[in-house]
């Protein structure tokens, strides 16, 4: 029987890298989709040392055609996608009086719209028991006005996850966002590894008590 597969959209050295390692340790093979070739190559080597088979593709996830094609290649190669993890967001330090509408829409395209692309592309390869996980943030509820678009992205992606979960659950696939109520740090409760464990636990929720939003407060 083939190993389970996780595809990570927005893969890099932070939380997404920790998510990849956490699932690799659990016996998953991994597909990585991200912007930085060197980061992807380095992360892939780490995952292979953990026993995972790894594929990686460099793509701008706001390019719907390229993103969908990359995810389809992962799915066609493995035959299935068991977990889809979505991580990207845009940090733009502009308050609401500085932020332009095109800038806001560009950021939302990355932090929210790309999730639609990813799920729609992965869906043909997902079946009962499949999971969609999303890195959320307290910015959804308590935005920092100096980075106004980030709060909009995180509120929007959480809302979209609720709709995805309601749509996918009829086929036994569930979606969850993990709202991280703290600032990422190198030590303490909010290291990328600790957040990744919260995401892994959210994906493993008992379906009879499933919540499409889980809060991680450390």
TrEMBL record:
Coiled-coil segments: none
Pfam families: adh_short
Keywords: Oxidoreductase
PANTHER family: 5-KETO-D-GLUCONATE 5-REDUCTASE, ALCOHOL DEHYDROGENASE, PUTATIVE (AFU_ORTHOLOGUE AFUA_3G03445)-RELATED
Protein family per UniProt: Belongs to the short-chain dehydrogenases/reductases (SDR) family.
Protein name from the UniProt record: SDR family oxidoreductase
Organism field: Nocardioides mangrovi
Species lineage: Bacteria, Bacillati, Actinomycetota, Actinomycetes, Propionibacteriales
């Amino acid at each position: 029987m083939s190993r389970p597969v996780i595809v990570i959209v927005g893969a890099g050295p932070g939380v997404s890298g920790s998510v990849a390692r956490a699932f690799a340790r659990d016996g998953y093979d991994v597909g990585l989709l991200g912007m930085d070739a060197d980061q992807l190559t380095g992360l892939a080597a780490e995952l292979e040392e953990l026993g995972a088979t790894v594929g990686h593709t460099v793509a701008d996830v706001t390019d719907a055609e390229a993103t969908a094609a990359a995810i389809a290649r992962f799915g066609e190669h493995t035959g299935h996608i068991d977990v889809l993890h979505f991580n990207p967001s845009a940090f733009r330090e502009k308050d609401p009086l500085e932020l332009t509408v095109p800038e806001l829409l560009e950021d939302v395209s990355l932090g929210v719209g790309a999730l639609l692309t990813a799920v729609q592309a992965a869906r043909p390869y997902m079946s009962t028991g499949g999971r969609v996980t999303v890195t959320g943030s307290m910015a959804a509820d308590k935005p920092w006005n100096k980075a106004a678009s980030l709060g909009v992205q995180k509120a929007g992606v959480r809302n979209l996850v609720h709709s995805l979960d309601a749509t996918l659950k009829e086929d036994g696939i569930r979606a969850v966002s993990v709202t991280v109520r703290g600032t990422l740090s190198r030590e303490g409760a909010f290291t990328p590894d600790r957040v990744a464990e919260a995401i892994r636990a959210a994906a493993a929720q008992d379906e009879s008590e499933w919540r499409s939003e889980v809060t991680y407060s450390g």
